[in-house]
TrEMBL record:
GO terms for molecular function: heme binding; iron ion binding; monooxygenase activity; oxidoreductase activity, acting on paired donors, with incorporation or reduction of molecular oxygen. Pfam families: p450 (PF00067). This is Cytochrome P450. Its cofactor is heme. Heme binds at C136. Keywords: Heme, Iron, Metal-binding. Belongs to the cytochrome P450 family. Gene3D superfamilies: Cytochrome P450 (1.10.630.10). It comes from the Bacteria.
Amino acid sequence: MLRLKEDKYEVLNDSSFEQALYWADVEPDEPDYAESLERLRKYALEALRLEPQGEVLLRVCVQDNDVLGGVSLGKGTVVFVAYAAAILDPEVVPNPAAFDVTRDERLTPYLCNQERASEAPQSLIYLQHGYGRHKCLGRYASEITMQELLRAMLRIGSLVRRGELEMDEENWFVMRFKIGF
Ligand code: HEM
């Protein structure tokens, strides 16, 4: 969101920082409150799509003759799933580098079988919580947390970024990120 304010991304379909401020200001007793929460959720999803928390997931193929993207995989093959690249693939996500809170999430039914109860549909473009059987268990909680955090921070107003991310020695984890008035 702060990068959005700094004009780092092209903004489509009224997905501006100023519009986010508008949605954050809607009160619970106003008619478009439900829409405002949904919009803020999409701001959080778009931000996480463009700057995801991780980049790859590791999988080990457990059976022979699995096919992934047209490639045949043998049992024991280690697969690096570069989901951070997939969510920027223009063949799947139109104009992927732009910030657009009106994107179709492309929800698809979850594949279920006898050993597993059916699950809520999953998005084909917001892959930052993973996809499939081991998709993040905390995804709904974290989506609501991000939505409410965003709403609270935007309502404080005039927050600005106070420097770049400070990473750990291996450059793996963010140790500090300063924002202030
Ligand atoms: C923005 C916040 C979060 C992001 C981006 C995130 C992302 C992810 C990703 C990418 C995976 C791997 C999915 C896969 O292997 O296919 C994962 C797994 C998991 N996450 Fe999260 N996560 C978040 C928050 C949380 C929270 C708040 C919880 C718990 C309350 C949680 C619990 C888990 C668990 C238990 C798994 C393992 C699921 C499994 O292997 O079946 N996550 N998460």
